[in-house]
Write a structure and sequence with these properties.
It is built from one helix and eleven strands, in the order ββββββββββαβ. The chain is mostly beta strands. The protein folds into two domains: 53 residues, no CATH class; 78 residues. The strands form two sheets. The chain has a six-stranded antiparallel sheet, with no helix packed on it. The chain has a five-stranded antiparallel sheet with strand order 10-9-8-7-11. Strand 9 and strand 10 form a beta hairpin. It holds the Pfam family YopX. InterPro entries: YopX-like_C, YopX_protein. This is YopX protein domain-containing protein.
Length: 141
């Protein structure tokens, strides 16, 4: 299922789109609310410098707690490496150059495995710990 959420750049909060208008396949205008049912609805452009919303697409995958993973989410995964617990924070992004969702430099589906194929250490299944709008500081680790 194709789903979106909308980051409201003015109110600094995540909303659910009630309506998205497309022109020639490009998202142009959106109406969004806190509940996805027109309650407290906002509307505005979704493309360009003056855009009110940043649309983020559902990846089709879920985290360890069963939450939907969207573009812009920050995932945490931990590995026990030589007796030391290492936590990585990875941003989920749509990579047009590879036509898919990526988590760091790996395809998103590869980040959801039980083993890190590069270093062969068991790791925890990723958990959503925030998003790039409210928790960008997590990516500085």
């Amino acid at each position: 299922m194709i789903k979106f959420r909308a980051w409201d750049k003015i109110q600094n909060k995540m909303l659910l789109p009630d309506n998205i208008e497309f022109i020639h396949g490009q998202a142009y205008w959106a109406e969004a609310s806190t509940d996805g049912q027109d309650g407290y609805s906002n509307d505005g452009a979704v493309d360009g410098i003056d855009a009110l919303f940043k649309l983020e697409q559902f990846t089709g995958l879920k985290d360890v707690d069963g939450k939907d993973i969207y573009e812009g989410d920050i995932l945490a995964t931990s590995s026990m490496i030589y007796g030391k617990n290492i936590t990585d924070y990875l941003k989920v992004e749509c990579r047009e150059d590879y036509a898919g969702f990526y988590c760091g430099e790996k395809p998103l589906f590869a980040c959801l495995g039980e083993w890190d194929n590069d270093i062969k250490f068991p790791q925890t299944y990723p958990e959503i710990v925030g998003d790039i709008h409210r928790n960008a500081d997590l990516l500085e680790h």
